[in-house]
Each structure stands twice: as structure tokens, then as C-alpha cells.
Amino acid sequence: MRQILLIEDEFIIAKDIKLLLEKDTSIHVKTARNYEEAYIHFKANNIDVIICDINLNDEKDGIDIMTEFKQIKTVPVVYLTAYDSHDILKRAKETMPFAYLLKPFNEVQLKVTIDLAYLNYQKESDSIIENTDYTDQIDELTKREKEILVVIASGKTSKETATYLNISSHTVEKHKKNIKKKLKLSTVGELVRFALRSNLYEVS
To answer: Residue 89 in contact with residue 119, Cβ under 8 Å?
Structure first.
């Protein structure tokens, strides 16, 4: 059972996210509205990933909370935010290995961003150094191509990726071909290594 801690002070948003994620019976979501509730859940449970709204109506914002939690345990984090800000990204980089997602979002974007947070966690755990030359190449990919790159790098086959993203296997293979061409890569292994060494925090 994968344990996800969701820190979100908007009740309806928290309820919707919990319902979306728990469609997968292997996932259990614990919700918290503020630092105190989040701290209790984080200390008492073996949390695998955190989804945290940055702009909480609390003394501490999401990044403050993750800065404290990192002193206890490092886990992948998905930051939720309504603002695409360089300052926010800079602060977030000083906390847990993370990805971030701009509101509003859909189910596919949420699932892929969780996968991206796990990839960035793996990158930190294995001390993989980012290659800044990959940044320009990443920008050449479409939103759908980035999603497919992340999901494949997370270990899913083309068929599994198609089911995961609600598209056909033919569409996945077509996008994989385009991704390899744009990135000048030949194999799935090379795609995985590229994803792990890239400077990718958001799929958009």
C-alpha cells in the first residue's frame, strides 16, 4: 500500500484529489489542512510521497513545512501552486526532491507529476548530476511528449503508458519516435537516463 500525505486547506480540492488517487486501490491518502495535522501524519506513518499546496492559510506555507520535514525524512514532493514563479521554484529546490503542478489540473497531470517527483527523488538518492545542456532539448518537447517521457522513465511499457494516459499504444509509439528524434536518442534506456539527468520539475 502506497501512503500519500496530502496537505491542502481547501476542503473540496482535497476531497477531489483524494478521490482521484484512491481510484488506484494500492494508494491510501491521508489529508491535512495545516502544519500541525501534517506533522502528526508524517511522524506516525511511513509516507511515500507528499502532495502539498504551497499557499496554505497558515503561519507556515508548504515550502516551510517541507523544509522542516526534510530534517525527519526525505520523500518525493509534489507542490501545488496557482503561481508559476521563479522565486517559488528557487525556494522549493532547497527542500525535498520535488515536482510541481499548476492549478487547475486534471487526473493525468497529477499522476504524471507524482511520477516526476519520484524520478527527481531517485536522482537525488543516486547522486545523479543534472546536465544543464538538456534544458534546451526538454523545451523542444510538447506537453504530451514530456508526459510520455516521464511515464516511460518511471518503468512503464508502451502498453502500460497508453492505459495510464488514456491514449492508444499507437499514439505512444508515435510520440516515442518523435521524442527519440528530437533528443537524438535511440533506446528506451537512453530516454530513462535523459529523464533522470534533465532539469525537469514540471510537465507543461
So the answer is: no
Beta-bridge partners for 6: 31, 51
**Mutual orientation of helices 143-153 and 188-197 as an angle, nearest 10°?**
100
In tens, the pLDDT along 135-151 reads 789 989 999 999 999 99
3-class secondary-structure state, position 26: coil
Report pLDDT for 176: 96
Q: Which string of b and e fits 155-165 if b means at least 16 CB within 10 Å?
A: ebebeebbebb
Dist CA 74 CA 146 (whole Å)? 25
- From the list 67, 15, 78, the residue with the least C-alpha distance to 39 is 67
Distances (CA, A) of 25 to 19, 105, 189: 11, 22, 30
5: β partners = 30, 50
Q: What is the DSSP letter of 59?
A: S
**Strand partners for 2:** 27
Instruction: Write out the three cell numbers for 118.
Output: 519520484
Q: What is the DSSP letter of 104?
A: S
